[in-house]
Automatic annotation (TrEMBL), chains A, B:
<dbReference type="Pfam" id="PF17770">
    <property type="entry name" value="RNase_J_C"/>
</dbReference>
<keyword id="KW-0378">Hydrolase</keyword>
<dbReference type="InterPro" id="IPR041636">
    <property type="entry name" value="RNase_J_C"/>
</dbReference>
<dbReference type="Pfam" id="PF22505">
    <property type="entry name" value="RNase_J_b_CASP"/>
</dbReference>
<keyword id="KW-0694">RNA-binding</keyword>
<dbReference type="Pfam" id="PF12706">
    <property type="entry name" value="Lactamase_B_2"/>
</dbReference>
<dbReference type="GO" id="GO:0006364">
    <property type="term" value="P:rRNA processing"/>
</dbReference>
<keyword id="KW-0540">Nuclease</keyword>
<dbReference type="InterPro" id="IPR001587">
    <property type="entry name" value="RNase_J_CS"/>
</dbReference>
<dbReference type="InterPro" id="IPR004613">
    <property type="entry name" value="RNase_J"/>
</dbReference>
<dbReference type="InterPro" id="IPR042173">
    <property type="entry name" value="RNase_J_2"/>
</dbReference>
<feature type="binding site">
    <location>
        <position position="178"/>
    </location>
    <ligand>
        <name>Zn(2+)</name>
    </ligand>
</feature>
<feature type="binding site">
    <location>
        <position position="88"/>
    </location>
    <ligand>
        <name>Ca(2+)</name>
    </ligand>
</feature>
<dbReference type="GO" id="GO:0008270">
    <property type="term" value="F:zinc ion binding"/>
</dbReference>
<dbReference type="InterPro" id="IPR055132">
    <property type="entry name" value="RNase_J_b_CASP"/>
</dbReference>
<feature type="binding site">
    <location>
        <position position="86"/>
    </location>
    <ligand>
        <name>Ca(2+)</name>
    </ligand>
</feature>
<protein>
    <recommendedName>
        <fullName>Ribonuclease J</fullName>
        <ecNumber>3.1.-.-</ecNumber>
    </recommendedName>
</protein>
Length: 589, 589
C-alpha cells in the first residue's frame, strides 16, 4: 500500500513516511487515567460519546449532542466471551443518557445486524416513542425484534440519497455495502460541522445486488468538507482488498458439483446475499432447499417478502419433505456457523439432531467467518462432522466466505475520498483502532487530529477541531435470563472462581449462648473432586477449630465462620494446591 | 497440488480422482459404537494403541506391542481448554498399560515439546527405571523436567542414523526438522513388519541448523517396504508448503530496523531457532538481549550449553541492566506468546509488570502461532499493549511465524517417499486426521489401508495388513494442583454449571424429632446476582415449604432438602430464567 496522490487541504500536511506510523499516546489518551467528567459543551459545539463499540467489537452505540439535543446512531448488543460466563447478552450502558431520553431526536440504525440493533428494545422499554430511523430492510428486522419484545416502535424509513431533518440534526443517508442488504452511512450536519459515520462498510465493487458504496457521494461530502469522520475499524489490520461476495458463487458451485450426497450450508442468518448464492447453486444443480433455524427462517422470510432475496418458484421445501428426497437433490441451509451448542448444526455434529443424521456422503459448508473466541466451538462441530464421515468445507480450506468489513486498502479509498479534518476510528478493539488510525495518518490526516476514544470518552467538535474533553462512566450491562443489570463484576468474579475450582461448603450449628457445636460439621464439595473421601482429612481440623472457638467463648456465627474458612482454606491450599471457594455457614440455635 | 508420478507397488492401485477423496466410514470406524475389547494379538502380530494424541492435539503417547513386550513412543501432556475448567494439565490415560509397566522395553521420545514429554514424570512415578530414549537436546529437557519432579530417569541418548535394539524392538532413528532442535522419527522393526513413526515433522529445505528431514532415509525404508506409517496430521488441512524458518530472519530484521524504542519478542520457550534469529537481529542492530520467563531462561540456557543456540559474547544481559540502557539498545525475549495471564507479557499488557512499563515507542513482536482456543487471551494482550501505545507485530500482520508441522504439500512428499502399505494418521483432531487420510489416498494408498484410529482404538498389523480390532478404555486424566486423577466428568460438569450460573445455598436446622425448623432459613447466592435483595422473594416460599414438611412429619433432612431445592429451583427458573446450582443443607439438631 503506497500513499495515493490526491488533494490535501483543510490543515493537513504530508508527513515523513520513512518510519512506520505510530499514533503517539498523549495526555488526551484515554489510557491515561486522569480523564474526568467533561466540561459543559460550548455553544455551537458537537459532542460525541460512544456508549459501546469502541475498544470492543459489538454493542455499537454512539451518541451525538448538539444544542441540548441528542442523536443516537445504532444500539446493538455484544455477545459475551469467556470473561463474562453465563451471560446471554451485553448491552451498551445507557446511564449517560438515561436522564435525558426526552432529548433524543432520533435513533438512526445503519443496518440490521444484532451488534447494531440488538439493544433497541431495551432502549425503547425506557422511552417507547423514540423515533427509529433506518432503511427498509433494517426496519423490518427491528420491527420483528420489537414484536418479540411486545413493543411497537415509531419507525421512519429512509433510503440512500434521503436528507432528513431529525430535530436539530440534518441527516443525509448514503448507500454502503456490507454483509447484509440495505446498509447506510449517515452524514450529520449541524452548525458545528459535518460529521460522517460509515456504519459497517466495505467497498465491494461488484456487489451482488448492484448497490455500491457511494464513494462519489463521500467525495462530494469531502468537497464540502468533512469535519469528523467516524470509520469502521474492524478489518483495519488486514492488508489489501477483500474479494467480492460474488466470487463465493463459483466456489459454492464447484463444491455442489462434487458433492455426492446431501449438502448442508451454515451461514449467518442475516447474510441474504450468501443465501442467495446458495439458492442459485442449488437451482443450478437441481437441488431443493430447506431452511432450518428460527432466525434463518424468519430473516429469509422477511428478505424474500421485501424482495431482497430472490427465491425461484418451488425451490424451498420443508425439512420433512427434504428427508424424503434422494440425498443428491437436497440442500439444507442452517444456522450454527459459530458452533453454537444448541444450533441444528451442532446437534448434527453430536449425532443428536431430531431428524438429520450425518452420513459419510454429506458435504457440510461453513460459509461464514470464524469470530475470535468461537474457535473451540466451531472446531468441535467440524471434528464431530468429520468423525461421522462428512466432508467439511470451511474458510480455512476454501474461499467460502468473504468479510463484510473494509480492509486496509479499502479504508485508504475512503480516507482519500472524504479527506476529513478529524478522524475517530470506531467499531473495534484497540488493535483495530490503532491500525485504522495509522491508515488515516498515512493518507495525510495530522496525527493530532485522530482521536482514539474508547467507550465513554467524550469527544467535542468545536471550531472544526475534535478533541477529547473528558469521560463519562460506561460499564457493561449484562442480560442473564430475564433480568437486566443485576449482574456485575462481583457475580462474574464469583462465577470465574467457582468455574475454576468449585466450592467447599462447611455447615455447622452452634449453641447461641455457649458457641458449642451442637452438630457435627457437614462438609461438602461441588466442582472440587470426584473423590468422595477428598475432604475427610479436614473434618477433624474443623472440629478442633470449633473446640477452640468454643473455648474462647466465641458465639458470633460470623467469627466462627471466618475461623472455619481459614482452616479449610489453608488445608486445601497445602494439600491440593487448589483455590476452591470456601463457603462456611454457621447457624446459632 | 497434483499427484506426482512415482513407483507404485505393494498392493496399491490408482483410483478415480475425478471426485474429492472421502474416506468412507465403514464398520471398522471408531465412530461406530460397537468396538469392544480386542482379541488376543496373533503370534507375529504388532499391536498399536494411542493412549493420547489421536482425535486431539496434545498428550501424544502411542504404545506398540510385540511378542508380549511394549514400546512407548512419546508421553506428553495436553493443555486444557474451556471444556475442562480449572485443570492444569491433561495426561494420557495409562490404565491400559498400568498392569504391564514391566513389559515396557523403552520409552522413545521423538522431541522435547511438552505435548511429547510432559507426562514422562507421571509415568516414571509408576515405574522409575523405564529406559528413556531420545536425542541429546530432548533428553536434556527431560532430565531437567524430571529433576523438578525429583526423579532420576534412566536415559539412553541416540542420534539420527542410530539403530538400536530395545528389547524385542529394533529401532532406527532419522533426523526430522520441526520447531525445536534435534527431533527424530523412529522406524520400528519386528517380525510383524516395519513401522515408521514421523513424530512431529516438517520438510524445511533450508533449516537454520542445516539438519534436514531425512527424506532419503525414508525413501530407503520405502524401498525396504514400510508396512505401517504413522504420520503427523497437524497441518494436513493446510494446502501447499510452509516457508522456511530462515525467512523469519529478514522480517525480524526489518521490524528491528524500524523500531524506535525497545523491542519485546515473545515466542515459545523451546523455539531455539526462532530465538537464534532474534539474537542475530539484535546483534546486527547493536542491541543487547535479556530473557525473561522461567522456561525461556531454562531452555535457552540448556540450548546454549549444548551448542544448539549460538550466543555472541556479551549479547545477553539481565533485565536490571537492560533497564539502564537506552531503549533502542534493548531486546527483551519473553514467554507469554499465547496470552497466558500470569506471563510477563500479559503483565506488561495490563500495566502491572514488576519492571517493564510499556511505552508508545515500544515494539512488541509475537513471533509465534496462535493456538486455537487462545485467541481471546492473545487478543487481550495485543489490545492491552496497543492501548498503551506500543506497536504490535504478529503473524496476522507480518510473517513472524512459520509452523513446525508439514502442510499438505510436504505430506505428499512423505507419502511418495515412504510408499506405505498401511497408513495411520496421528497427532490431530478428526478434521486433521481425515485431511491427512485424504492425502494418503491421493498418493495411491488404498482407502481400506488407511486406519483412522482415535485414542484407545486398537490397530493390529498382521500379515502386512493393519486393521482395527477393538478398543480399550482411554479417558482423560486431569492434573489439578498437586492431585492427579481425582477430577472427573462429575467435578468438571459441576464447575461448568457453577461457572455459568453460580449457586444458591439454603441452610436450615430442623428439630430431629418434629421436623420443625428451629432457625430461619439462611439463603445465600454466589455467582448469582449482585443485587443483595435478589433472593428475598423466595424466603417466604421456603418457609411455607418447611411448614408443609413439618406438617407432614417429614424429619429426614434429605427429604426436606429435596423439597427446598424444588421450591427454590422452580422459583429461580420462573423469575430469572437462570439455572444456578441449588445447594440445600438441612441439619437435624
Amino acid at each position: 500500500m503506497s500513499r495515493p496522490a490526491g488533494r490535501r487541504d483543510r490543515g493537513r500536511s504530508r508527513r515523513d513516511r520513512s518510519r512506520p506510523v505510530s499514533v503517539p499516546v498523549d495526555a488526551e489518551n484515554p489510557a491515561e487515567p486522569e480523564l474526568g467528567p467533561p466540561p459543559d459543551l460550548p455553544d455551537g459545539g458537537l459532542r460525541v460519546v460512544a456508549l459501546g463499540g469502541i475498544g470492543e467489537v459489538g454493542r455499537n452505540m454512539t451518541v451525538f449532542e448538539y444544542a441540548g439535543r441528542l442523536l443516537v446512531v445504532d444500539c446493538g448488543v455484544l455477545f459475551p466471551s469467556e470473561d463474562s460466563p453465563g451471560v446471554d447478552l451485553i448491552l451498551p450502558d445507557f446511564r449517560a443518557i438515561e436522564h435525558r431520553l426526552d432529548d433524543i431526536d432520533a435513533l438512526v440504525l445503519t443496518h440490521g445486524h444484532e451488534d447494531h440493533i440488538g439493544a433497541v428494545p431495551f432502549l425503547l422499554r425506557q422511552r417507547p416513542d423514540i423515533l427509529v430511523v433506518g432503511s427498509r430492510f433494517t426496519l423490518a428486522l427491528v420491527a420483528e425484534k420489537c414484536r418479540e419484545h411486545r413493543l411497537t416502535p415509531r419507525l421512519h424509513e429512509v433510503k440512500e440519497g434521503a436528507r432528513v431533518q431529525h430535530g436539530v440534526f440534518d441527516c443525509e443517508y448514503f448507500s454502503v455495502n456490507h454483509s447484509i442488504p440495505d446498509a447506510l452511512a449517515v452524514a450529520i450536519r449541524t452548525e458545528a460541522g459535518l460529521v460522517l459515520h460509515t456504519g459497517d462498510i466495505k467497498l465491494d465493487q461488484l456487489p451482488l445486488d448492484g448497490r455500491l458504496t457511494d464513494l462519489g457521494g463521500f467525495s462530494r461530502l469531502g468537497d464540502e468538507g468533512v469535519d469528523l469522520f467516524l470509520v469502521d475499524s474492524t478489518n483495519a489490520e488486514v492488508p489489501g482488498f477483500t474479494i467480492s461476495e460474488r466470487e463465493i458463487g463459483p466456489v459454492l458451485d464447484g463444491v455442489f458439483h462434487r458433492a455426492p450426497g446431501r449438502i448442508i450450508v451454515a451461514c449467518f442468518a442475516s447474510h441474504v446475499h450468501r443465501v442467495q448464492q446458495v439458492l442459485e447453486a442449488a437451482a443450478a444443480h437441481d437441488r431443493k432447499v430447506c431452511m432450518v433455524g428460527r432466525s434463518m427462517v424468519r430473516n429469509m422470510g422477511i428478505a424474500a417478502e421485501l424482495g431482497y432475496l430472490d427465491v425461484p418458484d418451488g425451490l424451498l421445501i420443508e425439512l420433512d419433505e427434504a428427508m424424503t428426497l434422494p440425498d443428491d437433490r437436497v440442500v439444507i441451509v442452517s444456522t450454527g456457523s459459530q458452533g453454537e451448542p444448541l444450533s441444528g448444526l451442532a446437534r448434527m455434529a453430536r449425532g443428536d439432531h431430531r431428524s438429520v443424521r450425518i452420513r459419510a456422503e454429506d458435504t457440510v459448508i461453513l460459509a461464514s467467518s470464524l469470530i475470535p473466541g468461537n474457535e473451540t466451538a466451531v472446531f468441535t462441530v467440524i471434528n464431530g462432522l468429520t468423525r461421522l464421515g462428512a466432508t467439511v468445507v470451511h474458510q480455512g480450506t476454501a474461499r467460502v466466505h468473504v468479510s463484510g468489513h473494509a480492509t486496509a486498502g479499502e479504508l485508504l479509498f475512503l480516507y482519500n475520498a472524504v479527506r476529513p479534518s478529524n478522524v475517530m476510528p470506531v467499531h473495534g478493539e484497540w488493535r483495530h483502532l490503532r491500525a485504522n488510525a495509522a491508515l488515516a495518518a498515512l493518507t495525510g490526516v495530522p496525527e493530532d487530529r485522530i482521536v482514539l476514544a474508547e467507550d465513554g470518552v467524550v469527544v467535542d467538535l468545536v471550531d472544526g477541531r475534535a478533541s477529547i474533553t473528558g469521560k463519562v462512566e460506561v460499564g457493561r450491562v449484562y442480560v442473564d435470563g430475564l433480568a437486566v443489570g443485576d449482574i456485575g463484576e462481583s457475580t462474574l468474579g464469583d462465577r470465574l472462581v467457582l468455574g475454576e475450582g468449585g466450592f467447599i461448603s462447611i455447615t455447622v450449628a452452634i449453641d447461641a449462648t455457649t458457641g458449642r457445636a451442637v452438630t457435627k460439621p457437614t462438609l461438602s464439595g461441588r466442582g472440587f473432586s470426584d473423590d468422595p473421601k477428598a475432604l475427610d482429612a479436614v473434618l477433624p481440623m474443623v472440629e478442633d477449630e470449633l473446640s477452640r472457638t468454643e473455648a474462647e467463648n466465641i458465639t458470633d456465627p460470623h467469627r466462627v465462620a471466618q475461623a472455619v474458612r481459614r482452616v479449610v482454606g489453608r488445608w486445601v491450599g497445602e494439600t491440593y494446591r487448589r483455590r476452591p471457594m470456601i463457603v462456611p455457614t454457621v447457624i446459632a440455635v
